[in-house]
C-alpha cells in the first residue's frame, strides 16, 4: 500500500459505497458518478493523516486495482 500512497495513486472509498461499483465506474471513465463521489468526499486520495491511521490501526481492508489507481476500503463485517 505504501508505494501506491507515495505515488498518489491510492484512493479511499467510504462505506457504504460498493468498492466494486466504484472500481467499475473508474474503469469505465464514468465521470458523472466519479465526480459526484469525489465532490461528496465519498471517494478521494488517501491523505497523510488517513495513511498514518491505517498503518497504526492495521484494519482489514480490501482493494481493487484500476491502473493507475488502487482503490481501498474497510472490509464490512470483517
UniProtKB/TrEMBL annotation:
<protein>
    <recommendedName>
        <fullName>DUF2288 domain-containing protein</fullName>
    </recommendedName>
</protein>
<dbReference type="Pfam" id="PF10052">
    <property type="entry name" value="DUF2288"/>
</dbReference>
<dbReference type="InterPro" id="IPR018741">
    <property type="entry name" value="DUF2288"/>
</dbReference>
Amino acid at each position: 500500500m505504501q508505494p501506491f500512497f507515495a505515488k498518489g495513486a491510492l484512493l479511499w472509498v467510504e462505506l457504504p459505497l460498493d468498492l466494486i461499483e466504484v472500481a467499475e465506474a473508474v474503469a469505465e471513465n464514468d465521470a458523472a458518478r466519479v465526480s459526484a463521489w469525489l465532490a461528496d468526499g465519498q471517494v478521494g486520495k488517501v491523505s497523510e493523516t488517513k495513511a498514518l491511521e491505517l498503518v497504526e490501526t492495521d484494519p482489514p481492508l480490501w482493494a481493487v486495482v484500476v491502473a493507475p489507481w488502487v482503490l481501498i476500503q474497510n472490509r464490512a463485517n470483517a
